[in-house]
Amino acid sequence: AVTLLRGQVSLGLPSLAPVALFVPQLADLSGSVDSRIGIAGTVQEPKLSGYVRANDVAADIPALGIHLKDGRLEAAPREDGTVRLAGRIASGDGDVQFDGDATQEGMIHVNVRGTKFLAANIPSANVLVSPTLEFVRNEEGMKLTGEVEVPTAKVNLQKLPRGGKKIQQASSDVVVIDEHTTEQEVASTPLVTDITVVLGEKVEITGFGLQAQLQGRLGVREIPGQPTTGSGEIRIQGQYKAYGQDLTIKQGQILFAGTPIDNPRLHIEAVREIEDEEVTAGLRITGTAEAPQLTVFSEPAMGESNALAYLVTGKPLDQVGGGDEEDNSMLQSAAQSLGTAAGGLLAKNIGKRLGVDEVSVKESEALGGSAFTVGQYLSPRLFLSYGVGLFEPGEVITLRYKLSKALALQAERGSIDSRAGVQYKIEK
After folding, report:
1. Per residue in 171-218, pLDDT tens?
2. Distance (Å, rounded) from C-alpha 216 to C-alpha 149?
3. pLDDT: is 136 or 396 the higher one?
4. How high is the mean pLDDT of the chain?
5. Residues 6 or more apart from 99 whose CB is under 8 A from it?
6. Secondary structure of residue 421 in the 3-state scheme
7. Report field, pTM of the whole predicted structure over 0.70
8. pLDDT per residue over 272-296, tens digit each?
9. Which of 52, 109, 127, 223 can bridge 35 by disulfide, Cβ–Cβ 3.0-4.6 Å?
10. Which range has the top average pLDDT, 42-56, 214-228, 287-301?
11. How remote is the C-alpha of 23 from its chain's centroid?
């Protein structure tokens, strides 16, 4: 016997607030749900009609500083057994819309498109995005493809979170499933991502002396079990303030060639033009993000220490030093900024011009890092030096008394430790 079905079910949820308990990323979730489902056909082949609809959905995402509003989500069964999906949500002056369909077997196909959707509005970043994406879930797995245009963005590097709160990520052993999905099914439906990010004409980054505009295209590809890779080029134009000077970024490229996204190749030049001397001096950064190489260059070509003097003071090396406190201060700042290698180069070439016996950049255990050090012999045997941390705040004072050519007593007092001992030096 065939049992016929005929009926209608209406359900409503006046408030979405309780749902927020299951989505901790959301705050002040509001909206309502109403549904009207018609049942027809037979027990063996039921047919559903009607809709499930969420109206006036709104919520805050505190981590991104945005307010979602005017949300509408709808799922409507079709006669062929598939479910039509559609919706819209706004943020700022833009919105994101989606439409697609799903089957009873869990197959999903959804298209997402948006215009100037406010994706972040926090002190460190204000970002608008215009996505055109396609999400597919089938027997082969899940795939997200398409393009995300970033027409406008302002990012302050100094205000980005650093070293504080860490995002808690699920262990690789943790698998989230619903009542219809087994752990094996989750493992067999990996997500592959292939998205092109397009930076528009109003993408700006500031902070740490940098004020620049970015443009370019970057293809981002992610396959489970493999590093996320990038393909494309990001171009940089703008100003970089260093050593009291505004350097112009003459050429700036961040290059990705199917390489890990966090380790692109760098080709950046920032220059200062000294018109009176008809000299251009600059910094060149090459290598990779994980192992950058910093060099000083000039046009016309000259020694690296002389080029550095032009870059910092606008003068050749033989005119630097003496009683000019401003020049000396800028040179010391340059040594601190350039780090141990370039600082050592600077110290070696201009130490005598600063009127002291020793200027160096070296490691200090009492400070816990590299220090820019200035020292003076108080007598032929007694040496006193004062160092300032390059990368960590702090200072170190060293007193050394020479007992013989190879033997000395030394005491150090630094921010981390104080120590005394015997120093034995073997000259080769």
Report:
1. 333 344 444 444 444 445 588 999 999 999 899 998 877 889 999 999
2. 10
3. 136
4. 79
5. 84, 85, 86, 87, 110, 111
6. strand
7. no
8. 898 888 899 988 888 888 777 778 8
9. 52
10. 214-228
11. 25
Q: Which candidate, 81, 215, 196, places its Cα nearest to that of 148? A: 196
Taking residue 172's Cβ as centre, other Cβ atoms within 10 Å add up to 6
Which residues does 214 contact at the CB level (< 8 Å), separation at least 6?
199, 203, 204, 205, 234, 235, 236
Q: Say which amino acid occupies 248.
A: T
> Is 419 exposed, middle or buried, given 0-12, 13-18 or 19+ CB atoms closer than 10 A?
exposed
Would you call 341 helix, strand, or coil by DSSP? helix
Looking at residue 84, its pLDDT comes to: 93
DSSP three-state, residue 316: coil
- Element (DSSP H or E) covering residue 229: strand 229-242
Question: Which tokens is 245 given?
Answer: 């000077």
d(CA 327, CA 344): 18
Cα angle vertex 181, ends 180, 184, to 5°? 150
pLDDT higher than threshold 50 for residue 379: yes
What ranges make up the beta strands (E) of 62-169?
Answer: 66-77, 83-91, 94-102, 108-115, 117-122, 125-138, 141-156
Indicate the length of the chain as a whole number.
Answer: 428
